[in-house]
Design brief:
alpha/beta, Rossmann fold, five-stranded parallel β-sheet, 8 helices, 12% strand, SGNH_hydro_sf, DUF459, signal, DUF459 domain-containing protein
Length: 414
């Protein structure tokens, strides 16, 4: 019995050895490196069992190119066939949706050199005043008679005088810039606790509003006491309902104190709300196009919003600077004046021509033009004078339908 078991075991081991020998012989001695033209070898059973090397396959596909369409005529010559138009993938009976067109932004005008006597526009305030001043500079870039300068501090206000004291710094700015108009926009950072002496007043308290009115009146009085035009720009609407309500209250203070001091309040509220008075992020710009006006925080302005803000203030500034805002204003000096003493006459010779007065050419005190004659002693009254003074109409021509005069006896009647 044991002999039979030994014989069976030897047969099993013999078969296993033959299988392993055949498996080893099936594995190639060396695998040549795969090239870009030859495909990578396939993995065998030995690689799967004992973790042999992996080969990556790189297959190159040429883009499919459709053969050109050809047509032959009766003589067997090739005739070119025009390419097919692109297929319209729009459903039948439905118009293709229009593509969104980007608004055409006109190029910024080239700035011109400012005159020595150009009127200075001083813009002061917080971060909103900084954006306003930059766009006002662009608005008057082509006006040589108007120059805009800004003195803004982004985190300043009328509450934190420890950060920036506007009543102390403003007189120095006025002495340095010598402005013709002063524009103030401030208050977006003032919704916070105020320190007055040793006391700290909470925002929205009665004492806080009383002290704030005093500080607004002080800042406005510094400008108007120097006989300078003051333009105080109000706060816009905000996305936060509480900030929007506070802006309405602060604008009322700005308007009252500015008008008491003799300045003008510039109300910009309607430009940044809808028909129902609600805050809008997207609205009409200065050209009437729908654009984004406010930032994602609901407080700051975009480029288009700053331009709209400056558009409101620009109208007030132009009223104060007058003709100096004209882009046609030039500087006349000896470099661009024509030679007045070398004007040619009818014979082609130069004759001296000196400037003369248009109101009194002879310099004799006369004010009448040549050919002027005195009015007649007896003025003839015109039909217009009779109509305006006495309400009398001229008689209608004979035979017209409104001629109600009784014909004379013996005249022919119709």
């Amino acid at each position: 019995m044991k002999a039979l078991q030994n014989i069976g075991g030897q047969r099993i081991w013999a078969r296993l050895g033959v299988f392993l020998l055949a498996l080893v012989l099936a594995v190639p001695a060396g695998t040549p490196p795969a090239s870009a033209q030859e495909p990578a070898p396939r993995r065998n059973l030995f690689d799967l069992l004992f973790g042999g090397p992996r080969y990556e396959r790189y297959e190159r596909y040429d883009p499919y190119q459709r053969a050109p369409r050809r047509r032959y005529d009766r003589n067997g010559s090739i005739v070119d066939v025009p390419a097919r138009p692109p297929r319209n993938r729009t459903a039948p009976g439905r118009a293709a949706p229009p593509r969104a067109q980007q608004p055409v932004v006109p190029p910024a005008p080239e700035p011109v050199a400012k005159l020595e006597n150009a009127k200075q526009i001083l813009v002061i305030g917080d971060f909103m005043a900084g954006g306003l001043g930059g766009e006002l500079e662009n608005a008057f870039a082509t006006s040589p008679g108007v120059a805009v300068s800004q003195r803004s501090d982004g985190s300043s206000g009328l509450v934190r005088q420890d950060h920036f004291d506007w009543p102390r710094e403003l007189p120095l700015m006025l002495d340095e810039a010598k402005p013709a108009v002063v524009v103030v926009m401030i208050g977006a950072n003032d919704r916070q606790q105020m320190t007055t002496g040793d006391a700290k007043e909470k925002f929205r308290s009665d004492a806080w509003f009383k002290e704030y009115e005093t500080r607004v009146a002080e800042l406005a009085g510094i400008v108007t006491s120097r006989k300078l035009p003051l333009l105080w720009v109000g706060l816009p609407s905000f996305q936060s309902p509480s900030m929007m309500a506070d802006a309405v209250t602060l604008n009322a203070i700005y308007r009252n104190q500015t008008e008491k001091a003799g300045g003008e309040f510039v109300d910009i509220w309607e430009g940044f709300v809808d028909e129902d008075g609600k805050f809008v992020i997207t609205g009409s710009d200065v050209n009437g196009q729908q654009v984004r006006l406010r930032g994602s925080d609901g407080i700051t302005f975009t480029k288009a919003g700053k331009q709209k803000l400056a558009f409101y203030v620009e109208k007030f500034v132009r009223r104060h600077v007058g003709d100096m805002a004209s882009p046609d204003l030039v500087k006349l000096d000896g470099s661009n004046l024509p030679p007045l003493s070398t004007l040619p006459n009818a014979a082609g010779q130069t004759v001296p021509a000196h400037p003369i007065s248009l109101s009194d050419p002879e310099l004799d005190g006369g004010k009448d033009l040549l050919g002027a004659a005195p009015l007649p002693a007896v003025a003839v009254e015109t039909p217009r004078d009779r109509l305006v003074k006495r309400g009398e109409l001229p008689p209608a021509p004979t035979g017209r339908i409104d001629d109600y005069r009784v014909p004379a006896a013996g005249s022919a009647t119709r």
